[in-house]
Amino acid sequence: MTDIANQYARCQEVGDKVSRLFAKRWDVALTQFNQRCSDAAQRLSETGTPDSAWNPWNGYRYAMDMAERSVLFWDTLRQRGNGFVDQTRQGLQPVLHFRHELVVDGRQLARPVNYALVRLLPPDGVVIDARKRPYVIIDPRAGHGPGIGGFKDDSQAGVALKAGHPVYFVIFYRDPEPGQTLLDVCAAEKQFIAKVCELHPDSAKPAIVGNCQGGWAAMMLASSDPDHTGPLVINGAPMSYWSGAWSEGEGDNPMRYSGGMLGGSWLASLSADLGNGKFDGAHLVQNFENLNPANSFWDKYYHLFDNIDTEPPRFLDFERWWGGYYLMNREEIEWITRNLFIGNALWSGDVRGLDGAAFDLRAIKSPIILFASLGDNITPPQQAFNWVADVYGSTEEIKARGQVIVGLVHQSIGHLGIFVSGKVAKKEHQQIASVLEAIEAFPPGLYGMEIGEEKDSEGKPHYEVTFREYRLEEVTERLNRFERVDEQPFEAVKRVSELNQRAYEMLLQPWVRAFSNESTAHLQRQFHPLRAQRWAFSDMNPWLAWLGPAAHTIKTKRDAQANEAPPARAYEHYGSQMISASLDFYRALRDAMTESAFFSFYGNLPVDDHGGDAPARHPESTDNPRDLPFVKDALASINEGGYTEALARAACLLARRGEPLPLARLALKRELAKDYAAYLPSLPEDQWRRVRGEQEIIVRYEPDAALATLPHLLQDRKDRQKLLELAEKLLADRRVQDAEPSSAQLAMLDTIRALLPIERAPASRSTAAKPAVTETSSDHTELGRKETL
User: Fold this and answer.
1) Mean pLDDT across the stretch 228-246?
2) How far is 343 from 340, CA to CA, in rounded Å?
């Protein structure tokens, strides 16, 4: 009886909460709708459109203008349909703007996949330096084709090419290879990266850029092959798919409810079986379109109609990518839905590769840059960042493992804009590319990247990049105001999905497979609504034979620049804004009802895996950081080590704290590291960061003991002499003097001097000593990028 009473009380609590949340959503949606209507009316009144807008002459002008725009609009859609038909006949090609050449064809590998590695050829006037760090861009395979990361000059690929870097692109073909799995794809991508390293033996490890689902593919790649991958740039990747709720509450991101509302992964399996073992990517694209009906069904088309004289080239260029639908094997879509969208298992270590080893994201050795946007309702910042807290559990573990994680948040851009927007490419992606080497020199930890913008007298923007170190605990608290309690029902979704999947496989799947064949699958794909609306409005339709010649005639006589728009266009704009606002209002109510239904059903199902608490965290997380094994191990080794540990500890003791870190200071450190490389230990970068992280833990929790035990690390007099000589040379360097070391740093240096007494000739602080320049290996040079001040 007690259990029944508790369950009843829980149902009442969930019901009350869902009702309050729905009422709040309704109020917010209604307020936003009324505000948009008011704003539209205000804009109409500000245009000062007189009543004479509808006099006979203006009415005639508007009618002619609208008729001409209508013909040109429908002709543009006809051109879109023709392009779709041509693409389909040719087998769909990447939408890359740049010429490219094939390097590795994944279809020829021992375990063939429909992926390939291509090298982008630079545009005219751009010179590539083969010694610079190569870039490898991995685009998402979420229904669309590859190339969106390089489909115009101002793109991720374009930014890297202009900077002189070799750029490679991981593309894929429309049809998957028989039996291909996502694990096969990951193994192929490892071979691609190895090939890039082989082609550039004198360069730094390649930077991997992963977009959306290409982001978690890049993370899987880096965790399975950490020795060949350089810095990772992860853009809008849903690493923690259950997370959401940035602003309005538990359900602010409706995309995450899709799996639960569809009953789990069984529907993806059904779609693949109806496709004779292949899942149609058009289903995924249709889900994206349904997410924003105002844009999908009205805004983008009215924008084309309203700007029909200038907009068609851009519209057709984008639709060439948006309308290319690719296929997946049944095994691939089932792996994605079970392990990522519903299972949320990538960060947990439960996902294993072909060799049986788990994908452990903590094995990644290179710095990771996470780029997300507050305006992204497909991959909100929580989904991009929460995995860090799940994997590492604490700031101390990040430092002890020598990891550098940098977060960059855009304030408003949507999901596609993260990869497509030229403004984002010129600002965020360009600045990311410019700081990659500097980020490798960071002490381990979690950083926020900020990009300040100023315009010169000519209006040209200039950017200033700064970094600020954060603790993981404060970032997690800021991202998750509800302490991730709203993720509990997703455990129930996972269980229901497993139950439905087994039921489908036992009861329906044999019948579906028996009645499916390649002919029925092909017919089903051709009549998918997204495909049908394109080929039906193309030259394949004989009823449209008149449209092309009519549009050509109108273009030859129409001069939009010479004729001002009729005054009645203002009323047209007003009507369009009202339609868009109505569709957004519908979306808000639809999402609110979906959210209420989700929590009403799954919120009342029992979840026992974690005792009803919040979702599982890293097992080593604790409220007291001193109890963490990483902290205990670091403090236990306070007397252990030699010159390397002493140098790292001195760097921690002398570090500036609580200040933004400007890019100029990072550049100075790189210069100093090269000039004083002879004083630096020869260690790989990841090992140096690990040492630095352990010493930082010691300095943070036992600052007095860290100072007192420093002499124990420098028993050898030559090591003491070397460390102090480095400190004196840095202090006497004019570049360091110009950076103005703080009084706290100078006082700490005096304390270190007193702890390490040796006979030496005093050096004058005011005299600039010439830096010691020596030829060193790349390990020396790279290793030297540390915080010596």
Assistant:
1) 85
2) 5
**Tokens representing 739?**
């950076």
| Burial track 686-706 (b if 16+ CB lie within 10 A, e otherwise) | bebbbbbbbbbbbbbbbeeeb
Closest alpha carbon to 113 in 190, 58, 168, 4: 190
Amino acid at 89: R
Q: What is the largest CA-CA distance in the chain?
A: 101
Coil, helix or strand for 392? helix
Q: Render 11-79 in DSSP notation, one character per residue.
A: HHHHHHHHHHHHHHHHHHHHHHHHHHHHHHHHHHHHTT--GGGGSHHHHHHHHHHHHHHHHHHHHHHHH
Q: For residues 789 and 768, give the distance between their C-alpha atoms in angstroms, rounded to a whole number.
A: 17
The pLDDT assigned to 49 comes to 60
100-240+344-483: CATH topology is Rossmann fold (3.40.50)
The answer, yes or no, to whether residue 82 has pLDDT greater than 90, is yes
Q: Two tokens at 263?
A: 């009953």
Q: Which residues contact residue 422 at a Cβ distance below 8 angstroms, ignoring those fewer than 6 apart?
A: 152, 154, 155
CA 740 to chain centroid: 37
Using the structure block, give the residue that is written with the tokens 């007193």.
754
**pTM score, two decimals?**
0.86
What's at 240, amino acid-wise? S
Q: Torsion angle, CA of 686/688/689/693, rounded to 10 degrees? A: 140
Residues 196, 137 contacting (CB under 8 angstroms): no
- Name every residue whose Cβ is closer than 8 Å to that of residue 755 and which is 6 or more positions away in sequence: 707, 708, 710, 711
633: Cα within 13 Å, side-chain hemisphere: 12
Predicted confidence band at 251 (pLDDT cuts at 50, 70, 90)? low
CB atoms within 10 A of CB 776: 17
Q: What is the DSSP string of 626-650?
A: GGSHHHHHHHHTTT---HHHHHHHH
At residue 377, the 3 state secondary structure works out as coil
For 684-720, write each residue's pLDDT tens digit: 888 888 888 898 899 888 888 988 888 888 888 888 8
Contacts (Cβ under 8 Å, ≥6 apart) of 513:
273
Average pLDDT estimate for 36-50: 82
Residue ranges of the domains in the chain?
1-82+273-329+493-618, 100-240+344-483, 625-783
In angstroms, the Cα distances linking 286 to 11, 139, 283, 586 are 34, 19, 5, 18
Distances (CA, A) of 161 to 157, 284, 321: 6, 31, 22
CA distances from 532 to 275, 300, 524, 526 (A): 17, 19, 10, 7
Local structure of residue 411 (DSSP, 8 states): S
Highest mean pLDDT among 98-112, 448-462, 658-672: 98-112
Among 472, 464, 518, which Cα is nearest to 661's? 464
The amino acid sitting at 135 is Y
Q: Using CA atoms, how far apart are residues 278 and 528, in angstroms rounded to an integer?
A: 14
pLDDT at position 782 is: 36
State which of 74-78, 318-322, 422-426, 736-740 shows the largest mean pLDDT: 74-78
Q: Which residues contact 300 (CB under 8 A, 6 or more apart)?
A: 315
